[in-house]
Amino acid sequence: MSSGDSSVTEQHRVVLRIPADGAYLSILRTTTAGLAARLDFTLDEIEDLRIAVDEACALLLPQAIPASELLCEFAVGEDVLSVRVTTEAVEPVIPPRDGFAWTVLTALVSSVDAVTTETGTSLTLTRQRESRAAR
Amino acid sequence: MIAPDRTRVEDISGSPGDADRDPRAVMRERTRFLFTRMGQFGDDEAEQEIVRNELVQLHLPLVDHLARRFRNRGQPLDDLVQVGTIGLIKAVDRFDLERGVEFSTFATPTVVGEIKRHFRDKGWAIRVPRRLQELRPSLVTAMADLTHELGRSPTVSELATRLQVNEDDVLEGLESANAYSTLSLDAPDAGESDGPTMIDALGSDDEALEGVEYRESLKPLLAELAPREKRILLLRFFRNMTQSQIAADVGISQMHVSRILTRTLAQLRQGLVEQ
């Protein structure tokens, strides 16, 4: 990133590591909701994001290595919040884009992206804040 | 009437010869007998197991009774009975006749302890501070009012301003509303019965699910959903209506829509895994 370039919107990063275990997802949901509230998202948008991270983790957890961790990286922009959830996997797989879960995700956030590396799978959810005037 | 009755019962239970007329005394007798047997069998694991099972069976009503005391605290009674039974089994394994106390006296704290531990484990979903419990109703009202006034769902700061609390409180309040949802997953919602008119307003599922790979496996799962759940799901994910729009359409709060979506998705997920 070219620091000092004022045309580039400043982004803050928030990183959270949690055990790859459904019991800890509430922490992730709460963090997501907290950050979205900071960006002045509406409750609709906040709740959508909350459900979306839940769904994303439900997609990733089955391939997670037992006792590994989920890495959750938030990029907090001016009017956009994105969260990348990465799981360690022995056989990383990208969730099918024509599956039901993917359909759900795309309805909940502005964009969904998935990548695999040798060590794991990442899902990135990005939600743009809707312009209030447009409503 | 009552006083003489009680005297009579005490008299009977106090005399060994009439023990069979008081179920509790019978139970105490049987329990003592079984524990004695258990000690006698020593290494015979098969026999031990039979006696142990009977002891557990015999005291299930105790577990049931104790579990009921924790009803209405947000956990399904079945779950409480289940964890309570684990406590009972532990108590059976640890009990020593020589202690000279009744087994039920000994077992009660173990069973209750197990149930309480269950609540502690599920604690995130349970312990909602009074302050937030009190905030919740006004939060719901403010959300509905603001949604109406603004023509869109409000932000957290707008809610905080309206309620004259800070944003953290609003967030926590929303969180606790979600926490509560985990308590009543299977409980029917109030007013459920008066909403049949909206059930069939949607087009066919086939149309809505066009292009979803798993539609064949989804269909039976969708069919199992309550009509309202199914409708909300389809409206959100296939008609792209916002939660607030759906809330207005269905006549419930947006928070409620959110809870239903979360719950329904989990249900479908589970169903897809089991197939």
In the predicted model, the low-confidence regions of chain B spanning at least 5 consecutive residues are 1-19, 180-204
Distance between the termini of chain A: 33 Å
Shape of chain A: globular
Biggest interface found: A-B, 30 and 41 residues
Counted by DSSP, the helix tally of chain A is 3
User: In which range does the helix fraction of chain A lie?
Assistant: 25-40%
SS content category of chain A: alpha+beta
Q: Level of helix content of chain B?
A: over 70%
What is the total domain count of chain A? Answer: 1
Strand content of chain A: 25-35%
What strand line-up does the widest sheet of chain A have?
1-2-3-5-4
- Average pLDDT figure of chain A: 88
| SSE pattern of chain A | EHHEEHEE
3D architecture notes:
The complex is a heterodimer of chains A (135) and B (275). Chain A has helices at 25-38, 43-60, 100-108; strands at 12-19, 69-76, 80-88, 111-116, 120-128. Chain A is an alpha+beta fold. In chain A, helix 2 (43-60) packs antiparallel against helix 3 (100-108). The longest helix of chain A has 18 residues, at 43-60. Residues 1-19 and 180-204 of chain B have low confidence and may be disordered. The radius of gyration of chain B is 27 Å and the shape is elongated. In chain B, helix 3 crosses helix 4 (77-94), helix 3 crosses helix 5 and helix 9 crosses helix 14 (254-274). Chain B is mainly α. The termini of chain B are far apart. Chain B has helices at 2-14, 23-41, 45-68, 77-94, 103-121, 123-126, 130-150, 156-163, 167-183, 205-208, 215-224, 227-237, 243-250, 254-274. The relative contact order of chain B is 0.06. The A-B interface holds A 26, 29-30, 33-34, 37, 40-48, 50-51, 54-55, 58, 96, 98-101, 103-104, 107, 132, 135 and B 124-125, 143, 151-157, 159, 167, 170-171, 174-175, 178, 211-215, 218, 236-238, 240, 242-244, 254-255, 257-258, 261-262, 265-266, 268-269, 272.
